[in-house]
Amino acid sequence: MRFKMRNKKRKKRTGISRFMMLLLIAVSVLSLWGNSRTVFADPDDGDDDTDTTELERQREENESRLDEINATIEELAAEQEGVEEEIEEITAALTEVMADIEDLNQRIDIKEGEIAEAQVSYDAAVAEEEAQYEAMKIRIKYMYEKGDSSYVQLFAEARSFSELLTKADYIEDLYEYDRRMLAKYKETVEMVAALQEQLEKEKNELVVLEANAEEEKAYMEGIQEDLEATSAEYARQILSAENQAVEYETLIAAQNAEINRRKAEAERRAREEAERRAREEAERQAALAAAANAADSEAARERALSEVADAESSKKVSNSNGTFDVSSIYSANGSSLGKSVAVYACKFIGNPYVYGGTSLTNGTDCSGFVYSVYKEFGYNVPRTSFDQRTAGKEVSYSEAQPGDIICYAGHVAIYIGNGMIVHASTPSTGIKVSNALYRDYICIRRIV
Fold it and tell me: Is the pTM of this model over 0.85?
């Protein structure tokens, strides 16, 4: 009965829950069907940011519906779990009932065996009773037929009074024995009959219990069947909801991909726009810097040419280290600008050598010396000795003119004519004049 009561309550509860859940799933299905026609906003319908915002709103709605479906799946799973627990309980109870039925069947078989044994005993007792009764009737008939004379004869034949008493007692004992045996057999028959009746009663009680157990078993099997059908229905609803969840997950994934694509496109456009603006600004700044550099270069060139012009009139250049004769430069073959570069380079003779430096006064290395001298005339030659081997154009040593760059292995110098060079030599000697062929050269490059 307790299973019946619980089953009614469960059916009422799960019926309501199932209706609500099916309603929720149906609403979700209709919503998905409606949204499936407008998964993505048309980018051509308006501003991209607005379209993306609308798509994000649609995605949030779908995520909300997906959460509802997942919650429904959890509720259905919880309901199914409760039904499965009830199935386990009813199965355990059904197992107990079936065990009781088996036990009752065994007990009924035992009772039937006992009844059969009692019947055998009863039949034997009845036979004994009937035999005793027949024997008693024979003796009574015999004595009746003999009459009283038998007793007289029996007494007359007694040789003594004691024997007479003994024979009389014998006759009495015989009658008494017959009565006792008859009573005994009759009592046995009655006792066995009572036992049979008791055994039959007990068997009938067992049969009633077995019938009740079979009825309980049938009832529980009905409940079990209903529960299994309910569990199967929950499983079907869960599968339907899970399929719905997969559809929403697929839809949301597609929306996320489209949102990410649009954001990436927007970022790319913003980046390109920023790069364009940065490029325009850089070009503007470069133009300004170029103009400033040109102005500075022109000013430096004018200053250098002015200093060279002063030196040309005196044929000498001076610095803190002394005065140097540059007349041989002016007498050499070559362009006036090349001679001006060579004369200007000689202005820094005696200044220090500093590895990696480019300062003509505070310290420079060999390539920094060439780079800085030419910079004063507005020329941008490469910074390193290796790269300076490709600057300008190559000429032969016989064609060398003042201002040309003579390139050695790991070293460069400025040719000043008459087989001489000016260069930042070493940290110990600084900027000095040397013979152009003091070591093997690699090439000669003309810049001006």
Answer: no
